[in-house]
């Protein structure tokens, strides 16, 4: 299964092709089946649908407006409105851990695997998705709005909805020879 380029780039509509109960089931399986380094189970998620999803993006818009000012905010407001128009946002979090030197890196790896698995599983049901990283500036307000324990840290926001409209032009990519090497292969 793969993530289609159209789902990566499409606008996302605010409805679901499946019942919320099925979304819950899919994400429950992702959380319980995904392996983690030393079975650390470091990923936590909060699934925000409908009004709760809108609240995530109201918080993000409020924080950004106050942080960057109205003039700069107007340039990014359409993108944020697009995220808010989707059906849901999965807040991906990880607990703090100070007992092991490499625990933070392993936790980030585990979170990345959960992000990808959730994205692919939701896409298989007809959703499109995009991954956002406003967490550095919205942590405090999101924690208050969703009663997030102090021991959890927001890592990213996976926005999902049904793809609609034309996909924007693909982003420019570096030449593959700069991004990938094959050693010992006969190509």
Structural notes for this entry:
GO terms for molecular function: oxidoreductase activity. This is Nitroreductase. Residues 17-161 form the Nitroreductase domain. InterPro entries: Frm2/Hbn1, Nitroreductase, Nitroreductase-like. It comes from Penicillium argentinense. The structure is a single chain. It is built from six helices and five strands; from the N terminus they run αβαβαβαβαβα. It has a single domain, classed as 3-Layer(aba) Sandwich (NADH Oxidase), CATH 3.40.109. 48% of the residues lie in helices and 19% in strands. The protein has helices at 5-9, 20-33, 51-84, 103-124, 135-145, 176-179, and strands at residues 11-13, 44-49, 88-95, 128-132, 152-164. With 187 residues, the chain is an alpha+beta fold. The protein is globular and about 55 Å long. The chain starts with a helix and ends in an 8-residue tail after the last helix. Strands 1, 2, 3, 4 and 5 form a five-stranded antiparallel beta sheet that branches. The longest helix has 34 residues, at 51-84. α2 (20-33) packs antiparallel against α4 (103-124) and α3 (51-84) runs antiparallel to α5.
């Amino acid at each position: 299964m793969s993530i289609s380029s159209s789902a990566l780039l499409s606008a996302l509509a605010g409805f679901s092709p499946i019942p919320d109960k099925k979304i819950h089931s899919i994400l429950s399986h992702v959380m319980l089946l995904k392996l983690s380094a030393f079975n650390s189970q470091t990923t936590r998620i909060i699934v925000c649908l409908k009004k709760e999803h809108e609240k995530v993006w109201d918080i993000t818009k409020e924080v950004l407006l106050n942080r960057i000012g109205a003039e700069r905010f107007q340039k990014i407001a359409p993108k944020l409105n697009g995220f808010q128009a989707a059906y849901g946002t999965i807040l991906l979090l990880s607990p703090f851990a100070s007992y092991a030197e490499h625990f933070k890196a392993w936790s980030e790896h585990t979170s990345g695997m959960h992000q990808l698995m959730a994205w692919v599983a939701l896409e298989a049901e007809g959703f499109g998705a995009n991954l956002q990283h406003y967490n550095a500036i919205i942590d405090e307000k999101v924690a208050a709005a969703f009663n997030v324990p102090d021991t959890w840290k927001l890592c990213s926001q996976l926005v999902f909805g049904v793809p609609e409209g034309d996909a924007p032009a693909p982003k420019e990519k570096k030449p593959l020879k700069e991004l990938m090497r094959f050693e010992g292969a006969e190509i």
